[in-house]
Amino acid sequence: MWEELKTFIEVVEQQSFTKAAQKLNISQPTVSLHIRRLEECFNAVLIRRSKKQKQLSVTYAGMIVYDAAKQMKSLWQFTEITVKELGSEIKGRLAIGASLTIGEYFLPAFLGRFMKRYPQLEIEVKIDNTVHICELLQSNKIDVGLVEGETGDKKFHKEEFYIDRLVLIGPIGSPKKMQRRDLETVTWITREQGSGTRVQWEEFLEKNSVLPAKTIIFNTNFAVKEAVRNDLGYALLSEHIAKQAAAAGEVELIETQEEAGRKFVCLTLASETMSRNVQTLVDNLKRDFVK
């Protein structure tokens, strides 16, 4: 009956017999047969189909079966992973998605330490903005996503692993401190929509009741930093990045009345059991993400 339940889960989630068949690599008549067997087993209608079979709706009994089937699937995945990994080393493929700030400025140093502990792992890293990392995770193209801020999406399980302070930077020669009124007269350099840094910048402006006079948008942190270095304007940037740039004499660190910060969050699919490789990564992120 397990195959029938797996088919039922896909039909409910895909809202289509055809799409479920394609996802499971079985024929559509087989999908129909699996659903009919389940309905005979429970003596209840689980799915109502229109005459043209272009639309379907899940009955109350169907939702009870769906919820139970999802729990069974999760428990089976956990059991399978646990048994297979008994006594084994941490090894195999681990696909990590990371937002630009994390992927470009934090992750390389962390992975240098991590790989010394687990040399048998094969790491693949994809770097993009937060929105695209969430899309990759949802489509199972990565195992775990490391992003900035909250996603608010219940499809993801979230674990915080670092608090990143954001600081204001300006061109060399900028004042050491700026008031709210000063922030409204300058040009702001910021990231694109979909970036976690962009969200935090917008929240910072709102918190300080600042209406920016002008903005210039770039899609990488390096470009933002370089724009500030070349006197194009001011930016809110990760303290980790900003301090490196300031130490190199590229920008000035500027004190503001209000501080800004964001959480770095590890995302996995809430519907999937966390593998041993992913759990090991999460444990290490919490323990020593930044040295």
From TrEMBL:
One of its GO terms (molecular function) is DNA-binding transcription factor activity. SUPFAM superfamilies: Periplasmic binding protein-like II (SSF53850), Winged helix' DNA-binding domain (SSF46785). Pfam families: HTH_1, LysR_substrate. This is LysR family transcriptional regulator. Belongs to the LysR transcriptional regulatory family. InterPro entries: LysR_HTH_N, LysR_subst-bd, WH-like_DNA-bd_sf, WH_DNA-bd_sf. It comes from the Bacteria. Keywords: DNA-binding, Transcription, Transcription regulation. Residues 1-57 form the HTH lysR-type domain.
